[in-house]
Amino acid sequence: LAPWAPVVGLEIHAQISSNSKLFSGSQVQFAAPPNSLVSFFDASLPGTLPVLNRRCVEAAVMTGLALNCSINKKSLFDRKHYFYADLPAGYQITQQRVPIAVNGCLSYSLCIDSKMSQMVTKTVRIKQIQLEQDSGKSLHDDTRSQTLVDLNRAGVGLMEVVMEPDVCCGEEAAAAVRELQLILQTLGSSQAVMAEGQLRVDANVSVHHPGEPYGVRTEVKNINSIRFLAKAIDYEIQRQIEELENGGTILNETRAFDSKLGCTVPMRDKEGKQDYRFMPEPNLPPLILYDTKSLPANMNHQQVINIDWIHERLPDLPSVKRKKLVEKYGILPEHSFTLLNEDGLAEFFESVVKRTQMKPKKVIGWILNDLLSYLKQHSLTVKESPVSSFLLGDLLNLLEKKEISSTAAKQVFAELWKGEGKTPLEIVKEQKLGLLQDQKELEQICQAVIDGQENE
Q: Which GO cellular component terms, listed alphabetically, does the Swiss-Prot or TrEMBL entry include (predicted)?
C-alpha cells in the first residue's frame, strides 16, 4: 500500500480588538468579575435588538485584505440555532450564506532542518472570513456538582478564518497559525493572545492513501497554544493511521487535546449530521460596503465603510518587514523570522543598532544568542528584559572600541541582567574588566614566566 497522506484543515477564531461587543455596547475586558459586562441584549432580554459595531467590520475588512481575500460589498447575517448553555438567546449570529470576505491565501515559511538554515515557503488557501458572536463561559464546579455561567464573553466579536485543507502536519499548521497571529497583531485587528482565549483553533484531521478519496475526519476543538496545536495534529494523524492499519474505523467525532497526557480524547460523536437550522437574521439588514468607485457622492463618510480607504492604510505585513530587515541590515533571512516571532524583539534590535557602532551582523548574534537565551531561560518577554536596548548598545560600544574583551563583555552582560541599575561602564570600572587591566595582568604573568626560566 502507498503511504498514508494526512489532510488538515484549520478553523481559527480570532477575537476582534474592540472596546465593545459585536452587537451591544458592553465593554470587552479580560478577567473582569463574572457577569459584570453584560448588557440587556447580551442577556437576551425580550425586545432588545442588535446594533452592529463599526470597528469590528473594519477589522474584518482589514484582515481580509491582508489575506488577499475578495471583500463582499454585500454580506449577510444568519442565525445558527444551536444550544449553547452560555448563550442565552439559544442561537448565534454569524455569517453562513454570504460572509464578509472569501477566496484568500496565506503564505508562511517553515524550516526544513533543525539549524534553521533552510526555509521553505508554503501557501494555504483561505476559504472565507466571517463575523460572528462569541459565546459565554461555563465554569464547572466539581466539588458542588454544578455549572456556573459567566456571560462577560457572550457577544464579543469574532472573526472566523476558515482555511482549506492544504496542511499535512502539525509543524505546517503551527507555522501557518503563527504567521496569521503575527498578521493580526500587526494590523491591530486582534491581539491574538492565545493564553487569554483571543485566538482559538479547531483542526479537522483525516488520513487517506494517495489517489483515494479523503478519509473520515475528526475535529480537534479549541486548541489554545501553537505548541499544543502541532502536538494535537501529529498525535491525531498517528492515532488514525494506527487505528486503520489495525483494521479499525475512524469515527466522525469531536475530540479535545489533553495537554498533560499529550493525546486527543473523545468529546462527542458527529455521526448524525447536526442541523443548525440556519435562517436569515431578521433584525440585521445586509451589510453594505463601498469602494471609491461605488461610493455615492452625497453619502456621509461617517456612516459607510470604504474598502479602498482601509486598503491604502494597511501597515507593512510581517513578510515585508522581514524583507526590509534583511535588505537594510544584511542579516540572514532566518534571523529575520526569529526577530519578528518574538514580540518586540525586532524593535529592540533596531534600537541597539542605532545606539552602537557595532555592525548589525554582530549585533544580531548578541540579540539571539545572549539576550534571547536569557529571556527564555527566565521565562520573560522582551518588554520585561532587565537589560534595555540602551544598556546593551552601550556595552557593545565598549566592545567595539576594544575597551573590553569579549569575555569581559559577557561578564558585564551577566551583571546587567541582575537589574541593579548600573551602566556597563560602571560595572567595567568596578570589576576592573578593561583591557588595560587585562594587559597589566598579562605582563605580570609573562614576567613571572621569564623570572622562572632565569631561576632554572
A: glutamyl-tRNA(Gln) amidotransferase complex; mitochondrion
